[in-house]
Amino acid sequence: MTEPSLQLLRPEQLDANGLVVTNPANGSQVATVRRYDTDALTRIIDAAEAARHGWAARTAKQRSDILRAWYDLIIAHTEDLARLMTLESGKPLDEARGEVKYGAAFIEWFAEEARRAYGEVIPTHAEGKRIVTLRQPVGTCAAITPWNFPLAMITRKVGPALAAGCSIIVKPAEMTPLSALALEALAQEAGIPHDLFRVAPAVKSSDAGDLFCTHRAVRKISFTGSTAVGKVIMAKAAGQVKRLSLELGGNAPFIVFDDADLDRAVEGAIASRYRNAGQTCVCANRFLVQDGIYDAFVEKLAARVGAMTVGDGVANPSAMGPLVSHREAARVAGLVAQAQAQGARPVGELADVPQGGAFHAPMVLADVTTDMDIAHEEIFGPVAPVIRFSDEAEALRIANDTPYGLAAYFYTADAARQWRVMEALECGMVGVNDGLISTEVAPFGGVKESGFGREGSSHGLADYMTIKYCLLGGLG
After folding, report:
1. Global pTM?
2. Would the pLDDT of 1 be above 60?
3. Domains and CATH numbers, the chain
């Protein structure tokens, strides 16, 4: 091993003939990791099913203490984990450090919530009888996670699963398994049983998904990814009526009204659109700006974007990094070219982009209209299409005219409008005068074709538990 951060991984997680992980900033090989075929995955599921009973039988405090020890180890290894993440995903080192802390916060939160999975006593309906409810773990779980947040997408699924008393198997994204494998190694160091939480890169992703949907021991699947794949999982899991949490595609509007604080709106736009090179599910995807400030907003945003630096996230920790692959960079470039052919106009100077990596310059597109494809596609790249609107009713019509409903943002100084628009937006999460909404203490999730279920907060723990109603008779 020449890369020091790879020392976090155990030898059995690596395989010279396994899955090749490359750095999207320069195409170099970072590591090769072990992959699991269907037979091996079946054995892992069976072992997790056997392990969960002993784990669930531990006291909530015992589970809490072990999760807390895991959290402490993650924080202690922040630099190594961040470097691994930058090498495999391309995101700049500063953002990777932030993700480690954000991801660790879910472990800390659910370590605390493990001790608060309360049942209830319900006033009885008859003499000599009492009614209670218990919250119990749903059972063995499976998670399928994406490449854009390779650490945090795992902790916010594994944290509540383990806190609730479940076992869980994670299939990480093929392009970014290293962060996940490092988390697994640290979990075992903290005292989490080997078979209880496993990270298993698959020989073939679709086969792993099929197995999770059909293996009877798997009681719940949590998936973060595209709506198209989420629908396939939902259909296949229906055969056994499995419990699901689906966090799927988005098309988040970012609305700026005439009365907004323009500088604050631009700062929020930068944070929401260009973080992780625009590769986040809650990114502002469409900028809707009212007539009176449209030109001023475009000008200010383009000036900020043109001043960005782009580069290798290890060498320049604060630069915007590459997209995750050359294929993704080409896809985003195709969307931009199509939008320009349909009449969109790039604004301002473009940042210099290094040669050889999967880079795409951050940019702003003005004169975008709602009939352009870029207004409906999930861009997943550093491009801000700006659409003009005239009044509140038009803004809401455009914002809600999508099958997706994950997140939305809007800026206004009018308190009454804040409540009207907040309530009228058809989405699971809303940022009002703020471009960053993710936190472990709040429920993360969407509506419509953006999925269902919630991650984070007490609701995230409840998604890994079932309610059992118990009637105690003969007490009179």
Report:
1. 0.96
2. no
3. 4-248+450-470 (3.40.605.10), 252-439 (3.40.309.10)
